[in-house]
Amino acid sequence: MKKGNKILKEEKSDHKKLIYLLSDYTPLERQNLLREVDEMIVKFLKIEQSNLPWLNSHKKSNKNWEKLSRRIRLILSKIHHEHKIHEGRVLH
Predict the structure, then answer these.
(1) Which of 4, 66, 69, 71 has minimal CB crowding within 10 Å?
(2) b vs e for 58-84, b when ≥16 Cβ sit within 10 Å of the residue's Cβ?
(3) Which residues are CB-contacts of 56 (< 8 A; sequence separation ≥ 6)?
(4) Residue 63 — φ and ψ, nearest 5°?
């Protein structure tokens, strides 16, 4: 949409980006990939799995931590997704 000299872009949330990224996967493949990503986050940040905001929505968390952790999840999901795509390719 264009308004005057400014172009307004609709920003997608990190969650919507993640859903779009994984749209070609079956529900089971999606679940497994996200579980693997969550395990990477837990190991890398040395935190308990119960501290991940998307696994414990009833737990009150800091908004900055929630935003950062969701972005980390999106980034790792993208990397993991790209790795799986390239893993299946054969170079001749």
Answers:
(1) 4
(2) eeeeeeeeeeebbebbbebbeebbeee
(3) 50
(4) -60, -40
pTM of the model: 0.61
Predicted pLDDT at 82: 84
Q: Measured between alpha carbons, how far is 6 from 34 in angstroms, rounded to an integer?
A: 37
Residue 64: pLDDT above 80? no
- Is the four-CA dihedral 43, 49, 54, 55 of positive or negative sign? positive
Tally of CB atoms within 10 A around 86: 9
Give the number of C-alpha atoms closer than 13 A to the C-alpha of residue 68, restricted to the C-beta side.
Answer: 8
The band of 26, judged by pLDDT with boundaries at 50, 70 and 90, is: very high
